[in-house]
From TrEMBL:
Species per Swiss-Prot/TrEMBL record: Terriglobus albidus
Ranges annotated as spanning the membrane: 798-816
Keywords: Membrane, Transmembrane, Transmembrane helix
Protein name: diguanylate cyclase
Enzyme's top EC category: transferase
Residue span, GGDEF domain: 885-1019
GO CC term (a single one): plasma membrane
Pfam family, one: GGDEF
Amino acid sequence: MPSRMTTELHIRRRVMEHFSCRCSAGVVHLWAFSSMKTPLHASPGIPSNRRNALGLVLIAYTWLLLLVPHIQSQQFPVRFYANETGLANLAITAVTQDPKGYLWIGTENGVYRFDGSHFQRFGTEDGLRQFYVSSLQADDDGNIWVGTTGHLFRLSGQYLVELKDANQPLSIWQGQNLGKLPGGRILAMVKREPYLFQKSGKDQWTGKPLLATIAAAERSSIGGLHSLFADRKGNIWMGCGKAVCQWSAGNITVWSASRGVPEDTWKSMLQDRHGSIWIRSAYRTVEISAAGGGAVDRSPSTPSEEREHLFLSLAEDANGRILQSSDTSLLRWDGQQWQIFNRNNGIPGEALSSLFVDREGNVWMGTGGLGLGQWLGYPYLENWTFAQGLKNEIVWSFLSDRHAGMYLGTDSGLQRLHDNTISDVDPHELGKAEIAGLADGDAGNLWVGTMGGTGILRLDEARGKITQATKTALVFHILHDTTGQTWFTTMQGLYALRSSNTTGMPEPVIETRHLLGDRDVPTPNACEGPSHTIWVLSDLGPLRMHDGAWDKPEVKNASNPPRFSQIACSPDGTLWLGGETPGLWQASPANSILTANRISMPDDLRDAHIIALLMDRRGWLWVGTDMGVAVLDHGHWSLLRQDNGLVWPDVSQAGLYEDRDGSVWIGTSKGVSHVVAPASLFQPAMLSAEVVAIERGEKTLSANDLIALPWSKSPLTFYLAALSYKDHAHQRLLYRLIGFDETWQTAEGEKVQFTALPGGSYSFELKAEDPFTNKSSPVTTVSFTVRPPWWRRLDVQIAEIIALLLLIAGIIRLWLHRLLIQRRKLENMVAERTYALEEEKRLLTQAKLSLQQMATTDSLTKLRNRHAILEILDLEISQARSKQQDLVVVLIDIDHFKQINDTYGHLAGDEVLRSVAQTLDGLVRSSDHLGRYGGEEFLLVMPGIPIDMAQGRLDDLHRQITSSVVLVDDKAVHVTMSFGAAALRPFHSFDSKELLHQADTALYLAKETGRNRIVWTSYPSGD
């Protein structure tokens, strides 16, 4: 066993060291952008200074590093959607969301709708006449307004309808130039003129210049307009010249330097949850307080050089923090200062073109060439890898220090994370050690368990001095319990530093060695249960210490010995177990018995290997596997994998740790993940299910089409979408068709089809479900009617019935006429056929009897054949037992039969057999059964005869048969016979095989003792 565990650990570690891929399952960690090429420089209408931006980017990045607090020690998981999901153009210009939940993506080559799995492009065939999308806005009807540099469109159904003014196209330039006012009105900045669009009829819109009524002098005083935004009160904010203008109830207020807004070109605006208006230019950000406090400069410290910016994004996250992009980074205002996230954190800062926070709080990042990015787990999940300072990405253990820092035990030594900076804890002995376990010691000491044979080390944190406490082959885990004792699980068994220990050095626990046969047995893990009970896993089963006494409980229902290497203690006293024995187990202790039951895991992790277990203070069970982390919250599962933010799915052995603040650290073979707020991260998704489109054959159906669909053999297809982007991969769509089948079915893919539905009324119902939380979305219903085919119309069916009745009447009349003619003929035919059938029946019965006789009768002697007589024997044995009667079985053999054949020939031998068979058959009782057993042997079955009477009967039978003479070709042949008899008494349990064996043995004795006699087994005497 030691060699097996050592080999497993080292194989896993070496595979991890040599596996250098930096992307998996669609989650891309961006390690460098120096070679990235943005496609924007080649697009029409894009300023040429984009082509030479690299120098400015480097300058700006340097300033940001020096002047702004920089969060460089976290690796944030970002998933990028690109060509493989249908996003054909990766240069994104705008992102928005409609009321149903679809994301709309503007690009340099068309607009796309995203449902969480696939992008649908809208281009020329859908009415889009220019592909460079400059701005997007959703209206109250759920339709999307699409601005391009030359046109303005509104998506009506599945088609883009262009809006014009006096038959002239409306040009929407790049930037924040579309907005929405209360009442469903839409704003658009057409070149430098704001337009207001209102509904004028069903799907009809009219627009007019917003500022047409103000005086020319007042209009000229506000300068050129270049952006707009509508707040929740209906005020319109516009970038005007070098100031910001506020339009309210027909009045214009200019926010300029005198009101705290510096002179600049303000291109992006946002209202936060408190009502404050945020405005930004290329390098400045200002907050205009809703409480009347005026304007406050919130600008990050950046270089002052100005240049034309196409994309100046502003967004507010779910926690009320402001997000904006810069030349090289994503910035986040935390209420006090700006935090910076860039490529060192996995954020594509240089490529950001838009920021958007959806209704669930997911943060989306449009880029200028990388596609659409989703910040997974935002803001409750952060990661660390090589890029943030880990010298080895294989992280085995954690320990929170006394200074709000975190020790990280890696495969290449001990490191410390403090204030978002990773540093080495590098005494000589720790520099390259594989740190498997960490625990607090006394007086500022730190216990360190290693894998490479160094054993248990003690580190003086203040002096950085390390001493070797105990040398063991491999340390798995260190447990510091609530009584102040420290337990070390190692390859050589359990070690402990007890409160009574005066040496201050861990020593072997002798009591556990005795329980394990006084030998070195690996103990891979331990935990502390209620009442200071210590549980220790060993390769020979679990051990327990309670009230100072050790025992070894027996495990029921699992393998023996159970191969568990991971354990977690619950507050209720139960244990959670996992390891080499497949699956997750919960064990309940009762005296000296541990009753284990296997617990169902989520389908996605059903075959996963459990590598780590943690029971946190909330009572949640964290299960680390080689396929991700599952969290059991009082009966409800949540899943954390790479597709929703985990740095890597292969969790390290015992690599789960709960910090003092309740956050959870996860060590993997490719870095560290930190779940900052588990309760927030695992909040159920805002589930939503939508029917994207309905088709019959190749035709897309409208709502009017569904009122009465004509019957058709063409399939009716429903296209489906789950419009929740949090843990989207885990969701599933369920549907049913009321009127056809009311059972909920799981949709395989994004569409379902029904072929040749019969006429009737139907309701298609759809819902999204998260199988881990057992939550479902509201049911989406689409009702429709299918008209029956023409041959099922009522008038057609009535005509069919009348015609059928007339046809039946004619047929009956004709039939009666013909019946009278054919009646006599049929009677004669019936009589003839009846006679023929009776004759056939008689012949069939005779043939059946003949076949039955042939199957059971010996053709030579006309006695029962071997098969038939053995069947009778089995039946009589059963009857004898049920009636508690004696049964006698006799094997009869003709003596010297071979000599008869040799002397007189085989035909004479056959005659002797026939003669003897006839004689025997005439002498036995009517209740006896006689058959040819084989060759010259016969089997006699005598049921219901007492043994003493059977002896007399057999003596008479033998005497008569041996005194007779058989004439063969006028020659007298004297025949003698040997009998072997066996009896079955009521107290015997012999079957037919044993009974025949006894008779055969008696026959053999008769032959051996001179032939021509009767020999019994010992049964007649009562044995």
